[in-house]
Amino acid sequence: PDMMSSMPKGLTAATGMDALTHAIEGYITKGHCTISDMFHLEAIKLISENLRGAVQNTPEGREGMALGQYIAGMGFSNVGLGIVHSMAHGLSALYDTPHGVACAIILPTGLEYNKTVAGERYRAVGKAMGVKGIDEMNDTEAADATIAEVKKLSADVGIPADLKGILKEEDVQFLAESAFADACCPGNPRDTNVEEIKALYRSLM
Ligand SMILES: [Zn+2]
Predict the structure, then answer these.
(1) Is 167 left (phi over 0), alpha (psi -120 to 50) or beta?
(2) Helical H runs in 29-138?
């Protein structure tokens, strides 16, 4: 973690939110299994507890993030990701949007989209993130509280909430086709198509 102590705040926030996206997408991806779940839930916990501190450059935050991002990698590299990554890749290619910023902006939208098929798995994500009272919530409330917690962490570390000023309408078709053809797309828990991905991009404009 000492080696990361000179990382700028913005880079720490972006790469940290990328790691959180790896852990959450990996946890809900089609191919998830007991072993990957174990890594992803621990990574979500570590990242939620330490990303704010890492952005403030505390040694504990840096150490927690070094561990959290690595454990997330041990999970998702075995099972794949989903459309948040599929949609993020094209933004970085077209607009030079930092990968982690693109992932962080799209993550809540991806979670909303996947709620109908993977929503019952969000409770464990929210629990790992420390959402208070989640055990007393019904499945819908727990899923919504989890998405709200993801948005809060992203905002707390200074990531914008949408793609206003980044995404251009004339690129939506190309981006959606690219996202659909992306290697991460088949792992998404909800089967998707180009038209639905276009709508997801437009919801962020
Ligand atoms: Zn990533």
Answers:
(1) beta
(2) 34-55, 59-79, 83-95, 99-118, 122-128
Amino acid (1-letter code) at residue 29: T
- How many Å lie between the centroid of ligand 1 and the Cα of residue 21? 7
pLDDT band at residue 178 under the 50/70/90 scheme: very high
* Residues spanned by the domain of 168: 2-203
Distance 102 CA to ligand 1 centre (A): 9
**Of 162, 134, 164, 109, which Cα lies nearest the Cα of 48?**
134
- Tell me the CA–centroid distance for residue 22 and ligand 1, in Å: 6
pLDDT in tens, 62-120: 999 999 999 999 999 999 999 999 999 999 999 999 999 999 999 999 999 999 999 99
At 19-70, the pLDDT tens digits run 999 999 999 999 999 999 999 999 999 999 999 999 999 999 999 999 999 9
Cα 174 to middle of ligand 1, angstroms: 21
In a 13 Å sphere around the CA of 178, the CA atoms on its Cβ side amount to: 16
What total of structural domains would you count in the chain? 1
Read off the CATH number of the domain in which 112 is found: 1.20.1090.10
